[in-house]
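ingest -> validate -> predict -> emit
validate: passed (alphabet ok, no gaps, 442 aa)
predict: started
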Amino acid sequence: MGDGMKNMRSGALFFFIVLCLFALTARGKDLRTKNMGDLNSAGSDFAPIVSPDGKLLFFTSDRPGGYGGQDIWMSELRDGEWSEPKNLGPDVNDQYNQGVDCYLTDDGKEFLYMTKCQSPEGMGMCDIFVSEKKPDGSWSKPKPLPEPINTKYSDANATFDYINNALYFVSTRPGGMEGEGPKKLAGESSYDIWMAERKSDGSFGTPRNLGIPVNTPGWEGVAFFHAADQTLYFSSDGHGGQGGADVFKSKRNSDGSFAKPEPVDYVNTPGNDIYLSIPAMGDVAYLSSTTGGGSGGEDLYRVPLNFLLPPELLAARSLKIPVARPEPKAGASILDTIYFSFDRSFILETEVGKLDQVVKFMNDNPQVQLEIAGHADSLGEPDYNLLLSHRRAKAVKGYLVGKGIKADRLSIAYYGEDKPAHANSPESGNRLNRRVELSIAK
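emit:
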């Protein structure tokens, strides 16, 4: 009898634990992703993109009141709430389909990249276009990117790595992974993810297919590159997962290759989970999903960043820098020097936290203007070192602008090997001279 009671108690306890775990798991999933409510419609709402300052949300929708099948809409953040969405109007939207890709700031100008399908101004079925923000806050008529980005095939979903000056996008052009995949997404072509370097004159080099392990014979699309973490987020139906298309992430290595993709389980559901984007500011990321319980076919969702980013990046985003009183003085150093690898101008992972501190400092001191001074060691020819120091300064400026700092608050200087901080030999001296110094402008 005693053993029977023990078994009954053990069974009851086991059943209770299972129920608790089930409840906690369900509750945890609810806490991870939250439907954005009134922003969604009875139609499809997807591709959420937030401006670098966190105040504007752009997304794609086929809701009533548009000009075409799918239009780009915008909502403003007011007192912590998103306003009623407004259509971007006929200068941007037309009778065809268009969807927002990414928001980019460059040399004081703001650009909205988008995909337009069936446009008579395009080269293929779908093409990448860009629109510039006007002084009055409206947007210019979008212009298609030239070859080699757009082709007679479908090219879509642009995203930028502003540290390495690279454009990622998806395409059905020849040279991708062969096959049509498992056909989980009805009607979708076999898109692959491609990358093209942006040159100093603004043009693009020849795109290359990311290949294995990122691309598969299935469908890879809707890429988003998180530059601070050097991580590519993308949706795919060719890597397995929970549903039709799931979100995966792949770390970019220093040689430009990519690590084996991992599923982002915190956001994946049995439905289609796509268009994950991480804003430069704020504590949430955004995505769209066809998971049940929404308003329409696809809905906008948000997810806390602590489920997505590593602790060190979360700490850098929330870091508060003490502001000295009186106001910071011109010429004063505000941060440790940013160091670079030999003959390289891309920003190292070890330096990202420092730059995020600068972003916080600039946001806390809106009156401050910053001088970004690039330097090089004495290895190589002086003329080349001068250009290298310029590229390093531009890389730092690009990072800060990409984080929402206005370009007109940032000035660039570059000195090549002329102003070493340390003797250029031995190697330790060379390493310390591969740097960018940040100071408050005079």
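Confidence is low (pLDDT under 50) at residues 1-31, 180-187, 319-326.
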